Amino acid sequence: MNNAIYLKHTQKIINYTSLLLFICTLLLTACGKNGNIGADSANNPTAKKDVDNTIPIGIAFAQTSNVALLGQEGTDGVKVAQKYFNDNGGINGKPIKLIFQDTGGDEVGAINAFQTLINQDKVVGIIGPTLSQQAFSSDPIADRDQVPVIGASNTAKGIPEIGEYVSRVSASVAVVAPYAVKAALKQNPHIKRVAVFYADNDAFSKSETEIFQKTVKDLNLDLVTVQKFETTDTDFQAQASSAINLKPDLAIASGLAVDGGNLVKQLRELGYHGLIIGGNGFNTSHIFSVCRALCDGVIVAQAYSPEYQSKINTAFRQVFQSQYHREPPQVTAQAFTALQVYVEALKSLDKKRQINNLKLPQLRKELNQELLKLTYQTPLGEIAFTPVGDVIQKEFYVAQLKMEPNGVNGKFALLNTK
Question: What is the chain's alpha carbon radius of gyration, rounded to the nearest angstrom?
C-alpha cells in the first residue's frame, strides 16, 4: 500500500517536471525569435535602434563640478531642441532620444562619459563635452571609434583638427574675441594701457588669452601685465592689486563664470574703474549671481543674440522663454544648434537611404559625412562647416552687462559696433 502511494506521488513529480521543462522550452524559443534587445543587441548594432524606432544621440555635458552651471545651459538647449524637433516629426517620423552622461569638470570625467555613450549606449553621435580642456582628451576617443562628435561650447584653437569625426558649432575664439576689444575702443578711444588675466589651468582660457594679447598688440596698445589664476581660485586680491598698481585703462579676463565673476568683483572692490572685457566664459546669466551689481559694464563678444531675426530663432526663443522665463544664453543656443545639425543631417541621409537599415558603424560614418555637406538655418544664423569640421558663421555680436538696481537681475545689452 505504501509502495503504491509512493509510486503515485513520484509519477506526479515526474509529470510536473516534464510540464515545467516543456513550458521553459517554449519560452526560450519565443525569446530566441523575438528578444533581440538582450543577447542580440550586443552582436547586432542596429538592434537597439530598431526595437523602439528612436535615434539615440549622446549628450556629454557637466552636471557636477565647478562647471556644472555651464553644463546646465547646454543641457537646457538640447532638451528644448529635442522637444521642438520631435514635435515637428523627428527624423522623418522617428523620434530623437537623448542619452545623458555627466562629464564632470575634468578630462577623466569626459573620457568616461564618451566611452559609455559609444560602447554601452550605442549612440549615433555625441554633443559635448562642456570644456575645450576636456575635448582634447575625449574627442580622440570618438574619432578613433568613428563616432561623430559636435562641440557646442568648445572654442579653443585646434578642436576640429583633432580628427575626421570632430566638428563644432561654437565659433573659434580667434574669430569672436577681437570684436570685444574693438567695441571697448569705440566706447573709450583713449584706452592705451591693458591688463590681461587668464585661467592657466584651462585650455580654452589659455587659447583665448593668446588671441586677446595678439589683438592688443595689433591695435598698438600697451600690454602692461599678464596675470595668471586658476578656475578653482576664489581669492584674486594679489593679481588684481598688481594690475591696478600699473594703472590700466582696460582689463581683459579669460576664465569661467564663477572665477571670472569673482575676479571682476574684486577688481571693482579694490578700486578699478576702467572698462572690463570678459571672455567667452562670461557668456552666461549665471555670472550675475557672482559679481552682482559689480558685473555692470562688462563687455562680452557673442556668437548668439536672442534678437536675431529668423523663424528658427523666434521658435527657439519662445519655447525657451515659456519654460525658463528668461532669455536663452549663448551656450543654450549653440547646444540647440548642435542637435539641429544632427536632426537635419539624419533627415537628409534618411531620404537617400533608410537609416534604420544601416548597421550602426555605417550609420555613424555616413552621418559624419552628411553633416559636413549641408548648410543650416539656425538660431545662430546661417552656418556650414569647413572640410575639417569648423563652423562657418556669419553673424557675431558684442554685448554689455546691464544690471538692474537690485544688483540681482541683469541682461546682455547689444552694442552697436558698426
Answer: 27
Residues contacting 192, CB < 8 A, separation 6+: 221, 222, 249
Q: Which domains does the chain have, with CATH numbers?
A: 49-171+309-385 (3.40.50.2300), 174-302+397-414 (3.40.50.2300)
DSSP 159: S
For residue 399, what is the enclosing H or E element? Answer: strand 397-403
Beta carbons within 10 angstroms of residue 107's beta carbon = 18
Write the DSSP symbol of residue 169.
S
- CA within 13 Å, CB half, 146: 9
Q: Which amino acid is residue 153, in one-letter code?
A: S
Query: What b-and-e string marks burial along 338-373, b requiring 16 or more CB atoms within 10 Å of the CB?
Result: bbbbbbbbbbbbbeeeebeebebeebbbbbbebbbe
Specify the DSSP element, H or E, that contains 33: helix 2-34
* Dist CA 388 CA 321 (whole Å): 35
d(CA 101, CA 81): 18
* Structure confidence by residue, pLDDT tens digits, 226-243: 999 999 999 999 999 999
The separation between CA 117 and the C-alpha centre of its own chain, rounded to angstroms, equals 15
Report DSSP letters for 35-56, one per residue. Answer: -IIIIIHHH-TTHHHHHH--EE
Q: How far apart are CA 23 and CA 267, in angstroms?
A: 77
Query: Across the beta sheet with 376-378, what order do the strands follow?
Result: 376-378, 381-385, 391-393
Q: What type of residue sits at position 73? A: E
Quick check: 74 and 331 in contact, CB under 8 A? yes
Strand order in the sheet with 193-199: 222-229, 193-199, 250-254, 275-278, 299-302, 397-403, 410-414
Q: What distance in Å separates the CA atoms of residue 302 and residue 282, rounded to the nearest whole number?
A: 10
384 contacts 374 by C-beta, under 8 angstroms: yes
Of 115, 127, 119, 140, the closest CA to residue 62 belongs to: 127
Find out whether 131 and 153 touch, Cβ atoms under 8 Å: yes
Model pLDDT for residues 11-51, shown as the tens digit of each residue: 444 444 444 444 444 343 444 333 332 223 333 344 344 44
Could you tell me which residue, 58 or 28, shows the higher pLDDT? 58
- The closest of 336, 341, 388 to 367, measured between CA atoms, is 341
Tell me the whole-structure pTM to 2 decimals. 0.83
Give the integer Cα–Cα distance in Å for 396 and 398.
7
